[in-house]
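[recover] target loaded
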């Protein structure tokens, strides 16, 4: 009987110590390597920010003069500046089809997704959440980030841009 209890305790310990279990149901934190405006890598873990869709890495957006600028590169730089070597804390929501952890993340108690949307470097990803929609509306009105262009030349939504520019 005693050996069964010990085996059970060891089994439970192994299950609860698995990273996938801890990630799926809890918080994780660490330093980040930024991949683009809404994706990061924390150690071996790929993380996608929940509820936002940043301009794609090679996407351009119109500026006030009617020319274009690299808004996707600027979105990546904005995320890098925001986290700037600080500890990032994330609450996992799910995993996406690319096996990335989709999570709400913060740095110094500042919501990373909300900040990027407010700065105009990401859109509210309404397909998954309406959480950041008020921030996107304010960024559009203030003409910040990717919304800096003329009203009659808005940027292409990142989701539409991906459909029109598939990866090779």
């Amino acid at each position: 009987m005693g050996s069964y209890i010990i085996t059970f305790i060891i089994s439970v310990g192994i299950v609860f110590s698995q990273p996938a279990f801890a990630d799926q149901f809890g918080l994780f934190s660490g330093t980040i390597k930024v991949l683009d405006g809404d994706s990061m890598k924390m150690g071996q873990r790929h993380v996608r920010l929940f509820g936002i869709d940043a301009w794609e890495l090679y996407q351009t957006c119109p500026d006030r003069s009617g020319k274009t600028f690299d808004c996707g590169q600027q979105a990546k730089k904005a995320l890098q500046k925001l986290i700037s070597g600080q500890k990032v804390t994330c609450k996992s929501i799910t995993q996406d089809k690319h096996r990335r952890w989709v999570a709400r993340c913060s740095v110094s108690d500042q919501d990373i997704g909300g900040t990027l949307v407010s700065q105009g470097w990401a859109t509210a990803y309404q397909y998954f959440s309406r959480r950041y929609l008020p921030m996107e509306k304010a960024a559009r009105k203030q003409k910040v980030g990717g919304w800096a262009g003329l009203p009659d030349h808005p940027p292409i939504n990142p989701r539409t841009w991906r459909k029109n520019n598939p990866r090779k």
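[recover] notes: The chain has six helices and eleven strands.
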